Amino acid sequence: MNRHRANSVRAWAAVAALALAGGAVSAIAQSGIASITGIVSDPTGGAVAQCEVTVTNTATGIVNRTRTNESGVFLLPSLIAGPYTVAFESPGFTRREIQSVVLRTGQQMRLDATLEVGAVAESVEVTAEIEPLMRETVEMSQTLTSSDIESLPLNGRNPYAFVQFAAGVSAGGDDPSALAYADRLSVNGSR
């Protein structure tokens, strides 16, 4: 009986640890905040310093501005998730605008731009639906809605069976109702 109780306590401790570890990541993701960073360069690959980067949330009309540093790097943190238009302007270069940029909650988007040499009055507009590549982080995440959870084929709503649906989690046993099942869970390759 003591061994059964010890395994049960260990199993629930493992679930609590997973919940706490996931909670720290999901707290950032659930805050509704995202960011855009990138490098602005000229056609030769040289940095465009002091380029004005204007990010406009097309749903709310909120405008955020920043300038690139001497290496052409810019960062706009603490943006609300949603649709944006991003514009790049610098004297001696044509204005470049990228529309339909969609930021998701917790995302750190990398958006590089190349400006063409030209008169100030010239403008280049790019309209595209882009699927951003997240090169700034190596995270995996997923969101399950309440209807997703209700439709899961779980016997008895065992929390160990539910944990295996999270990104990066794999189970080492066949029976999630077994007490030793929690000992066989692997999260992102760790045990």
Question: How would you portray this structure in words?
Answer:
It is built from 3 helices and 11 strands. With 191 residues, the chain is of the alpha/beta class. The strands form 3 sheets. A 5-stranded mixed β-sheet has the order 3-2-5-6-9, with no helix packed on it. Strands 1, 4, 7 and 8 form a 4-stranded mixed β-sheet that branches. Strands 10-11 form a two-stranded antiparallel sheet. A hairpin with a 5-residue loop joins strand 5 (82-89) and strand 6.
Q: Secondary-structure map with pairings?
A:
Elements: H1 2-29, E1 33-41, E2 52-57, E3 63-67, E4 73-80, E5 82-89, E6 95-103, E7 108-110, E8 113-114, E9 123-127, H2 146-150, H3 159-163, E10 169-171, E11 185-187
Parallel strand pairs: 1-7, 1-8, 6-9
Antiparallel strand pairs: 1-4, 2-3, 2-5, 5-6, 10-11
What is the succession of H and E elements?
HEEEEEEEEEHHEE
Morphology call: elongated
Q: What class do helices, strands and sheet pairing give?
A: alpha/beta
Number of strands: 11
Task: Give the low-pLDDT segments.
Answer: 11-18, 23-30
Q: Please report which band the strand proportion falls in: under 5%, 5-15%, 15-25%, 25-35%, 35-45% or over 45%.
A: 25-35%
Quaternary organisation of the protein chains = single chain
Distance between the termini: 26 Å
Q: Number of helical runs?
A: 3
Q: What's the helical proportion of residues?
A: 10-25%
Q: Report on the biggest sheet.
A: 5 strands, mixed
Kindly report the spatial arrangement of strands forming the biggest sheet.
3-2-5-6-9
Radius of gyration: 23 Å
Residue-averaged pLDDT:
75
